[in-house]
## 1
Amino acid sequence: MTEKRVRVRFAPSPTGPLHIGGVRTALYNYLFAKKHGGDFILRIEDTDQARYVPGAEEYIFEALTWVGLTFDEGVHIGGACAPYRQSERKSIYKQYAEALLQNGHAYYAFDTPGELEAIRKKQESQKQTFQYGPLTRGSMKNSLTLPAEDVKKKLDSGEAFVIRIKIPDNEDVVVNDLIRGVVSVQSNQLDDKVLFKSNGLPTYHLANVVDDYLMKISHVIRGEEWLPSAPLHVLLYKYLGWENDMPQFAHLPLLLKPDGNGKLSKRDGDRLGFPVFPLQWEDTVSKEVSSGYRESGYIPEAVVNLLAFLGWNPGTEQELFSMEELIQSFSIDRINKSGAKFDAEKAKWYNHRYLIKKTDEELLELFFPMLIKKGICSTDDYIQKVISIVRERVNFVHELWDQAHFFFIAPESYDEKAVKEKWKENSPAILTELADRFKNLTEFTAGIIHNAVQEFLKEKQLGMGQVMNALRLTIVGSSAGPDMFKMLDLLGMEETIRRIERAINTIKK
RNA sequence: GCCCCGUUCGUCUAGGGGUUAGGACAGCAGAUUUUCAUUCUGUAAACAGGGGUUCGAUUCCCCUACGGGGUACCA
């Protein structure tokens, strides 16, 4: 077999916001495509009009763009295989269903949804599951059981029908999965899935196979939830005569809840305090808002990195990877088989790593909107200096405010516990004297202040802690924060004096 | 229920018939410092259980348990 050009697709259905697991699936597809110099395609699988959610498609595109995934073909950009929205490809599926009808691998079925449901209910009450398949199709209403003329009559009269695949009897169907190896299923376990719905649209199974073939997809990389229907897809390729062009399959392990069990789901995010969606999403009906990584302050590069490592690893001890590095190192055979629990703590750590990689200018850019919101007015230069001395202390941009608010607003109250521990009987006296020293300094820079304080300590026979702790309280309002001398330098002498005096007058002991 | 997939520290994972079972996050302890945090150093922590195969199994096979997925005219 000649080497096929690598072409992969990400094929979400626009039924709501893209789940973070979906982002990972897209990422793996992208990495694989780029690694092999292939194409990454976005196809929208909207064959279920009842579940269509307005805005979902835009959301998907925006989310993927945000994390830095770009498509070579797809909705929004077009390409040689356009259109890329299945609802716009409606007319092309019917012929393939008919070909299957022709060659005897599919048949018409006339059982109504109501009838099917009744049978399922009945079986269920007997603790059994009804499967429309090799064992049961003989007693159902379809072109296999009905006389040919009845079938024709029904068809001619416009009676609703579906087209079902005719699963073979007693045959081992083999799926060769790139991650799991050979997966074999007995065909009797499969059911005669509907391929073509009564509303004239194909189901996912038909559409996905037809489109992958027509779009010359070389590798189907998708979630593990598709593994059970992969044998069906293999059968379809075979019956459609495309066996030699069948893509290779890779079924990804699922993303699991961090606590307990089960697939990571919509509700987990807000319950456990981390987003499950890349972007914030407001439900069109319930107006319920689900948080997004972007809005929560995650850096896209960090999200990419942490997602890449949930189910895959390079086999080295390197933890931090840029997209380019991921592309270089990625390979399907290093993808894990088992599901991965999402670790919110590690996600924060990744964000911290990427945040401190940013320059002060970049952080200013990101931090600025928040300052505006707080009504802070300051110069870029000042803000950047502030950022430079607190940046190491945060995981998220919004935390910069928690670490730096006192650079913009003087403390109005003083942390009670800190006062109790750090504010001594003689603090006012010491600080008054220190403030006088400050006033006499010709220059007010970190180094000079440091020297002055040291001299002061020596003269007064005081320890660093006795003075600095109280001083910090006056400047910050609590006993936390970065290096004092750098802070004073930034704040300037006047503000420093003002804060010292205010604290002396305010803190009563 | 039935079918499919899986199971190495709390979590993400490396490894693989003979290893001190390695790393990262989180934890704990120490160091640094004017505080808090960062950082650095150290430390604790795992092969689900039972049978085989083998000189030897965490690694290969089987069973059990547990977990996950599927079982729609949804994708």
## 2
Amino acid sequence: MQTNIEILRKNKLSITQGRLVILDIFLQTEGALAHADIEKKLSSNFDRVTVYRTLQSFVEKGVIHQIPTTDNTILYALCKENCEAGHHHDEHVHFVCVECEQTTCLENVIVPKVKLPRGFKPFQAAMIVKGHCVSCKY
Amino acid sequence: MQTNIEILRKNKLSITQGRLVILDIFLQTEGALAHADIEKKLSSNFDRVTVYRTLQSFVEKGVIHQIPTTDNTILYALCKENCEAGHHHDEHVHFVCVECEQTTCLENVIVPKVKLPRGFKPFQAAMIVKGHCVSCKY
DNA sequence: AGAAACTTGCAACAACATTGCAAAACCATT
DNA sequence: AATGGTTTTGCAATGTTGTTGCAAGTTTCT
Ligand SMILES: [Mn+2]
Ligand SMILES: [Mn+2]
Ligand SMILES: [Zn+2]
Ligand SMILES: [Zn+2]
């Protein structure tokens, strides 16, 4: 497991308090986080704008990836694979629990390929599964 | 192909100007629409709030379905299958063109089942494929 | 240490979303 | 067709979320 500093170094991001703290939040969190979640978890008070900009540069550098939602929100989670600036390789499935509302990266479940109609050229696919997660059996 | 009135009747929604017009927009549009797109296409001026509420009841009744995005937006598209209030059956793949930015329902490409880790109970899955659409070959 | 490059906070603003309430439209019934 | 009960709409107010420019503060490099 890499430390926050190592991750920043590796991705050529300058090392600042804000980035370290936000990265730590991701490192300590199981599951995905929305902007709002991060702000809540930030004990020290960083400006909202800083959080926005930090998330943005993390996505650009391939430190975190985005997970689509249907609630006017974007979720973010650490990239565990070797993502680089511009090219993410997070082809795993995301699971949204309808009970606890947690979204989990299923690192070991890769998104299957599908056969598209003639003419469509895919280059990236995301899959989101809703249901009951392992902690919320019913 | 059903008319706007037929769709409202079938779903026990009272027939109002706003609903008819918004449904027409969906019926005349290839691809998915965001709230903002609908407001732009509305020549007559309906209140923003009405559009929100209309979309909401359409989703609840199974007239339209939502498509997740990573840009703080929700896309909506007509349900062509027999969706009902509470239970949608739109298990098709959605294609997002990075060129023209159109999102298309690939009605004939169904979302494949994936094997989840022990303990996860799925009940719905969505899949979004990004790439170049059939009109934007490069 | 000093200069250049980058990051941050602040303030102002813009865009988007939600709520309560009264007026209007709709629908079922007579 | 008129009536009355129910649902929907618009408005106004308010809240939430996201963006931008700029000056001050940090970080990095030499
Ligand atoms: Mn993930
Ligand atoms: Mn669809
Ligand atoms: Zn759960
Ligand atoms: Zn296209």
